[in-house]
Amino acid sequence: MNALSGRSVAVVGAGFGGLSTACYLADAGADVTVVEKNEQVGGRASALERDGFTFDMGPSWYLMPDVFERFFADFDRTPTDYYELEQLDPHYRIFFKDNAGRRPGRDPPGLDVNTDGDVIDVTPDREQVKRIFDAYEPGAGEQLDEYLAQARENYEVGMEHFVYEDRPRIRDWLDPDLAQYARGLTLLGSMQDHVEHYFDHPKLQQVMQYTLVFLGGAPNTTPALYNLMSHVDFNLGVYYPEGGMSGVAQGMAELAEELGVEFRTDHPVTRIHGFRGGFEVETDGETNVYADEVVSDADYAHTEQELLPPAKRQYDADYWESRTYAPSAFLLYLGVEGDVDPLAHHTLVLPSDWTTHFDQIFETPTWPDDPAYYLCVASETDDSVAPEGHSNLFALVPVAPGLDDTPEVREEYRDLVLDDVAENTGVDLRDRIVVEERFSVSEFAERYNSYRGTALGLAHTLRQTSLFRPPHRSNALDGLYFTGAYTTPGIGVPMCLISGELTADYVIEDAG
Prior knowledge:
CATH superfamily of the largest domain: FAD/NAD(P)-binding domain
Helix content: 25-40%
Shape: globular
């Protein structure tokens, strides 16, 4: 008999954490209903369709393929049962802004990189990447090997013993075996200090640190343990899933339905009532949902502050106000006539000193005047996302959560970004745009009920990592659970898949 046979669970929110939890609970025998505010599943991994263009609205990097393989294997499936994968080459391209003398639009130098060219490709070919590093700093190629060896160890040990295995209490960390597991791991210090130990050149430091954007942190505040992201980047590879990341969400929803999960989209939840023996989940839809347990994949702060009565909240408003939040974003979704060479599928445009940009996110919140940003050109890999003769592109600038994004500010910043793209990549989009949509702080707050319009949730600072993140189990209301980026293991699509497994384990354990 399955552990949850005869029990019902309502999952609030169909982001990756909610989808993952729903699959594991249904596989354990529960009657699962997923209630989603918006018109499609995927949470931030929604798809935007306009006039023949299809954009991933949120996450667009398929990283840590081993996590997806493990997830589907838990149900005797593989990712390719639901979507195909293509490894990207290059993984990504970087344009550095201080490339005076570079001919706009010239081909990236690749193997012949020089420190005046400042356009580099990071590819699956390690030896090629090492030559690039050596061109900037003699001996940096060998240092890269050493750095990635440490990153691999951090990843393999960290994933097995500190990510897939949740440790929510201090006493969980007193296990003597942990000392053995942790021996040799880079646990202390910041990513800035750790990277500086290996590389002197600031541009190489940026290459090793850009993945912090996926964690919502800055180099001087993110723990050095997260150098494991470089193993993800350089060793595991970067892939594109058929249909984009929204296609992955659709695949997970298909799996969930095969397991018996019911989905109700366009059903914003307005209240969660706990009573003896179960819950009532009020929605704006046709009917409310009654269940024995509730799992919230909605924004954690929104769930506590808006959906629960004060007596059933774990944290007060001061707690949420005092947290450090990952950035929000200013996004331009652009359908463009013609090609956008030399932009790659994943392109980063970085100023020579990005400290100011991080300060304008975390220290003195304001709109960045010299932004670091990301360009995604999915049409470089997938012909189906744009009409023939056109390119599909979105620009993403990380900005501070809570900024005032009035129409006037957005218009001004839109022009700044397009001017910057033209100046620093040689690609002038301004007179070729046939479709344009904007998405920023206010939309993150409105569409996803995101606290202060953060795009990601709680940043991964030392005081907001592991047991210092909000728990999966509510300690104020029995039978209420949480999943997603606010919980452990944290931010990112793969982490949300794991969070769903951990949450389901708690539900099953408590029911047992």
